[in-house]
Amino acid sequence: MAIEVTVPALGESITEATLGEWLKQPGDAVAADEPIASLETDKVALEVPAPQAGVMGEHKVAVGDTVEVGAVIAMIEAGSGAAPSKAAETPVDPPEKSPSVTAAKAADKQDEVTASITLSPSVRRLVLEHGVDPSQISGTGKDGRLTKADVEQYVKSGAQQAPQADAATSTSAQTPAAPSASSSQGGNRNEERVRMTRLRQTVARRLKEAQETAALLTTFNDVDMTAVIETRSKYKELFAKKHGVKLGFMGFFVKAACMALKDVPSVNAQIDGEEIVYHDYADISVAVSAPNGLVVPVIRNAESMSFADVENTIGDFGKRAKDGTLTMADMKGGTFTISNGGVFGSLMSTPIINPPQSAVLGLHRIEDRAVVVDGEIVVRPMMYLALSYDHRLIDGREAVTFLVRMKEAIEDPARLLIDL
To answer: pLDDT of 206-216, one tens digit each?
Structure first.
């Protein structure tokens, strides 16, 4: 007897998703609760588990199709499981994005090796990136499934071999083909079209809506990071030993932001129709880079958290964003956002707010610069801070005051301990 596989509940206010990838092909054996497909929503990617053990039946939708909650996407047939069908030997999915069409051919070959093995999207991406044969790697996950750590350890050990590709394909992936007579003047000019993920489409739409709806303005300040750097250097070993997590820069900025938001409540507020909603708590959204784009999970009640709590929460968000396991609940709400472009080397930027929030703080790289202190020119590790805000709600005086409070707390971290 066949059983239907339906789109599960996706979270509050989320009614549809995009079929991102089939993890099982018709004819493949599946275990109960084993992931058989991945879905992309406006905010996160999630896996669809098999409702029972059996054999993968018909796919009712194709990769890239939009599906609603409750829609039937596949069938699971009764049985102990047959050998993977021919469909499973050749992947339905398009190859991972690559620098050129010729390089994509090599990825196709590697896909043939990985198709018959069930891999999560993040593990599959890592396998293709390193060109390894997953059948040669021992899995430590549930039911022997491969984890990202398994692949990373395999690559680190140097045991991987070249992808299973024929000589002609390998050559074309590494060396551009000789130009034809019609293209001899300019060489190869390959193009590749890749469908935007649902997450990227949503990010693009929301950023444009923010620009069109809010009266955006950005105010800058700079901060001397000497005191924070010295504090981290002095206490990092004791902090890690006691709390089991590294003492990072973000902990200082989150706690400083909570103090500044308390002093300037409009920065932590939002417009709702003709009313202003003020919050007596600080739910800090932190921008985290994920494989499919930027996501902003929320540190809830950050104002009542310790440094260790903040650092543990941020570390967990980063790991789960990389693994693709963040949930809708992780992203819900938020009253203020901190985005750290400095980790990518950004010197200065004008970040865009995350509606319905009214402000976002941009952090940037730390670099030694000449500054004047007590009438003398000295070299100090400096960072630019940028506060973008909705000028309909936040006045320039309030924006400047907020940044000054941030500067005071970072340059004198003792203020964070005595609430000054």
So the answer is: 888 888 889 99
